[in-house]
Amino acid sequence: MDIFTSIPTHIDYVGQAKAEKLYRAIITLFSIVGFIWGYIVQQFSQSVYILGAGFILAAILTLPPWPMYRRNPLNWQNPRNTDEKSSGKKGKK
Fold it and tell me: Mean per-residue pLDDT for 45-73?
């Protein structure tokens, strides 16, 4: 089970935007090509196959957290100590 815990599972915000742009571009491109090809050969099934291939390609390229989607990590603040919060000044809002 250690192999599963060693796999990174996060994508940063910039990576999410890149993945969504790439997904939309691939689906749009494959749908246009599929429509044109299906119209030329007069087979709707060919359009669906091409769109399905685009969906599979887009899923392979955008669903896993590839390193290209993890280049801009967020710097999180350290958590505050709860003892300092309770012994601090009261009354100010």
Answer: 93
